[in-house]
Amino acid sequence: MNNYHPSEGKNKYGRPIEFRGIVGNQKTLRRITRCIASQSLPNLILLTGPTGCGKTTLGRIIARATLCRNKGIGEFEPCGRCSSCGIDSIHQHALFDELDSNLFCDERLIDLNHDLQNTGRVFLLDEIQELPQRYAQALKKSVEDIAAHLILCTTHPAQLDDALYNRLKANEFRLTRPTEQEVVDYLTMRCQMLGVTSDSPNQLLRVARAYNLEMRPCSQFPAKALVEANGCITDEYLDEVFGESECQPSAVIDSAVEVPFNRPLI
Ligand SMILES: [Zn+2]
Question: Do residue 68 and residue 105 come from a single domain?
């Protein structure tokens, strides 16, 4: 069954499955989508950024776009209709594999070394700073020349093996959490779509701040309010969800606030 939601670019779990469903990071997205549109996306890419900024979600969308069978030259979004795109989870795809750095083992390394030579496969390896040292060193050799696509993600690039990071940094894409304004704009749009109302714009800012600008809980909040508060966001409801002591915004936001990231630009 095709659960593709064209109006939002998200799947039934509320996760974006298209680039246009991603909130924030528009400059980085433009770099990536230009590469995909011109069919020049490097086989090996590194996505870095703080927890909750959407590295894994973006990696899965890149995998969808890479595996899409209908995408022509100049296009970058997954088509949403082919056997690669018309699935709710990219994990259902036979040519995609998401690996856990904590569960890496000798057998997995042997398999990966072999599979990385297969054109058409896409691998996502998350939190690679947690990869044991000997596997990190082996990976550095494995990625010298690959035919498959390998997407690596890390929250802490500073903790990576230096030689491995040197190999990866030419194809690094840095992400940040969305700005407060971007999250509030998204919440406003999502509430309007669901018919959820709020007493004041500050309430959505309070939601964004309470969830520390992490998109996963923010994106689920309007539907939660629909069920729990009958679609009416009030201060009393927010007190119930977040507690009365939690800091409340004193004024309507008027500027975007970037969340800093911890590896200096080189
Ligand atoms: Zn497709």
Answer: yes
41 Cα–ligand 1 center, Å: 17
In terms of average pLDDT, the best of 48-52, 68-72, 171-175 is 171-175
Residue type, 46: L
Distance from the CA of 25 to the center of ligand 1, in angstroms? 23
* Domain encompassing residue 126: 19-174
With CA atoms as reference, report the closest residue to 55 among 165, 176, 160, 137.
Answer: 176
Domain boundary among 153, 174, 195: 174
Number of domains in the chain: 2
Ligand 1 centre to CA of 128 (Å) is 28
Ligand 1 midpoint to CA 194 (Å): 28
Interacting residues of 194 by C-beta distance below 8 A, sequence separation 6+: 222, 223, 226, 231
Kindly give the distance from the C-alpha atom of residue 37 to the centroid of ligand 1, in angstroms, as a whole number.
14
Reply yes or no on whether the pLDDT at 134 is more than 70: yes
